[in-house]
Amino acid sequence: MEKKKSDVSVKIDADLASWYSERAGSVRAGCTMALEGWPTIMARELRHLRGAFEVAEANLILDAANGLFLTGRLLGAHLVIEVRDHMELNGAAAHFGVDGDALMVRLGDLSPSQIAVLEWWAAWVWRSTGDENEWAARVKELTGEEP
After folding, report:
1. Who contacts 116 (Cβ-Cβ below 8 Å, separation ≥6)?
2. 93 contacts 103 by C-beta, under 8 angstroms
């Protein structure tokens, strides 16, 4: 039995419409694949990233992402800069008890898609968490540790 589908309407640049059309056969098919596939990619990448960061590092990453506004064309280009600036300008590494240089090396070792997923995860945590238990669950999702 096929799941019920919801109609959505999105506006994308003409060059993206051509890109989807060329690669998926139609703009609609490409957008559907992207929209339906992203949650699966996110879940898989988060499982792959589990344990790559300690709780204090995850909290620093989240703190740096407070107010992060993601844009499609720059997805994956925000977070590393935000984390570095947060440590350099606000002393976040010392505040969270994190080795800032080691964190930057680990972030630098991630693939662009992993950084994009980490950005999306951080922005999602800020939008979705209403209490400490939810926050802790999201941090555990990334770290594998109890905060």
Report:
1. 75, 76
2. yes
H/E element holding 94?
A: helix 92-96
Enter the tokens of residue 133.
């238990």
In whole angstroms, give the CA distance from residue 48 to residue 55.
16
Please state the pTM of the whole predicted model: 0.86
Higher-confidence residue of 134 and 94: namely: 94
Written as one letter, the residue type at 135 is: W
How is residue 41 written in tokens?
């990619």
Q: Identify the burial level of 104 via C-beta atoms within 10 angstroms of its C-beta, where 0-12 means exposed, 13-18 middle and 19 or more buried.
A: middle
Domain boundaries, the chain: 14-41, 50-143
From its phi and psi, is residue 91 left (phi > 0), alpha (psi between -120 and 50) or beta?
A: left
